Amino acid sequence: MERERKLTVAILAMLILVAVIAIIDISFKIEEKRSREIKFVMPDTGAGVGIVRVEGPIELSSPSGPFSLPGGAESIVKRLDALAKDSSIKAVVVRINSPGGTVAATQEIYEKIMKLRKKNIPVVASMGDVAASGGYYVAAACNHIVANYGTVTGSIGVIAFSPNLRRLFDKFGIQMNVIKSGKYKDILATHRDMTGEERALLQEMIDSSYGKFVKDIAVGRNMSESDIMKIADGRVMSGSSALEKKLVDQNGTFEDAIMKARELAGLDEESPVYEESTSPFNEIFGQLNRFLGSRSIPGTEMLYPVYKLEYRYMQ
Amino acid sequence: MNLEKFRSLAWADFFLYSLIDPRALYRRVKQKDPDAFWISFIVPIFVSLSGILLLSLLGRESAFFYYKISYGWILVFLFTFIKILIYTSLVDVAAQFSGLKGNIRELLTLMNFSMLPTLFVLPAAYPFIVGDFVPLFFYVLFSLACFIWHILIIVQSISEMHTIEFGRAFLIYLMPAVVTGIILLLTGIMLVINTAGYISTFM
């Protein structure tokens, strides 16, 4: 029995020995991996360029849904604010891929970028597929604009629209009971024709926003308002055409924009680029929200007009 | 357990009988010389250690795994202990349903010792991992073999504990797995139905 017990202890000792060998083996692998990763992580420290992304239609907040996350112009402004406070950010690249959006949201981003410029943080705009209307408005706030040759840009102007369903209502014999406090309270109503007074009132708003648009572009681009007015008729143009008309400073890629930002900030070519960090959870919930969140009951947007003035390129 | 008993190597009997004679293991546990209850927990501790070492050796090197390895340790330890505790409780309940007397303390001791073969997966699979010769295949092969060995130990121990035949002991051991499987399947189906219903409300 004594012999068998000793044999058992020997077997257990052998198992422990194998475990110790495995631990040493794994420790070596960890050290090897860590040294490799330190080399990889090194460039992401110190002074560098921050990236801000303006994607899709610009609105103050993103559409709500069961998995909604902070989004829209508010989150872009927050990101710009965070970059402005970060001492390691010496320049910012705003990557724009947007057909524009609501007037207020666009102006919020424009003003925030102008504040960064006042703090002597160079801001470079990099245009993607589309940077038209409000998208261009945002770009105009930057020190330097880089557009791809094929970028769709321009579309300087303001738009508001609502469907006129009067004939449809008449056809089906539907009548709306409207009780209102003032004659303009149901402006943009879909069940009747727009009156001349209403049209004039809205036109005044459009003109006011348009004037602000042109003025801000002139300030941002350091051009005269009259020069802007010549091309501010809502026309769209390619990146190369925009360069000819001095709406952009350079034709190039996102990388070119980063290089320009480094140059303007006096950073070396290897300086780090700080992208917006998104956790895997945010990505999953973002996808779910895009799938579920922005859906409304079909047809309701026709009956209940949304009062929106937009700097937007209608695709 | 004092030093004298430790040096007598009487505790080694539990490990020895686990491997060569599970029926004798139960009889030895019942003698309580020394008390096997706390000693038995050495086995799940080393099973957890062995498990995480195998995961480390077989898994891909990722920054997350290596820097957050402490979470992995805690997770594997917790998982092993909770798994043993829950399954032992269920087997004890199944035994009582079969008209036998419940004995959770001794059953837990036996369940712990029955995990001993799992410790042999590491030394058996290690040469194949080092030699990079289909390591995953041999890991699965040895794991399966050791799992069958574990079942043989625990079923024979239960058979001896309740003085019942091997087949009935096997059924008592298997019953919780079958019931849990059915419950999990039904829960899964209900979860899918609920999720589909929840998503459809937003469409």
What can you tell me about this protein's structure?
The complex is a heterodimer of chains A (315) and B (203). Chain A is of the alpha/beta class. Chain A has 2 domains: 1-40; 44-291 and 300-312, 2-enoyl-CoA Hydratase, Chain A, domain 1 (Alpha-Beta Complex), CATH 3.90.226.10. Chain A has helices spanning 2-41, 72-85, 103-118, 134-140, 166-172, 196-221, 225-229, 239-244, 254-265, 280-292, 300-303; strands at 48-55, 89-98, 100-102, 123-132, 144-147, 152-154, 236-237, 250-251, 273-274, 310-312. In chain A, strands 1, 2, 4, 5, 6, 7, 8 and 9 form an 8-stranded mixed beta sheet that branches. A two-stranded antiparallel ribbon of chain A has the order 3-10. In chain A, helix 4 links the parallel strand 4 (123-132) and strand 5. The longest helix of chain A has 40 residues, at 2-41. With 203 residues, chain B is mainly alpha-helical. The model of chain B has no long low-confidence stretch (mean pLDDT 88). The A-B interface holds A 2, 4-9, 11-12, 14-16, 18-19, 21-23, 25-26, 29-30, 33-34, 37, 65-66, 292-293, 295 and B 9-10, 12-13, 15-16, 19, 46, 49-50, 53, 56-57, 61, 63, 66, 69, 119-120, 122-123, 126, 198-199, 202-203.
Shape of chain A: elongated
* Proportion of residues in β-strands of chain B: under 5%
Number of contiguous helices of chain A: 11
Instruction: Give a quick account of the main beta sheet of chain B: strands, pairing sense, barrel closure.
Output: none
The assigned structural class of chain B equals mainly alpha
Q: What top-tier CATH class of the largest domain in chain A fits best?
A: Alpha Beta
Quaternary assembly: heterodimer
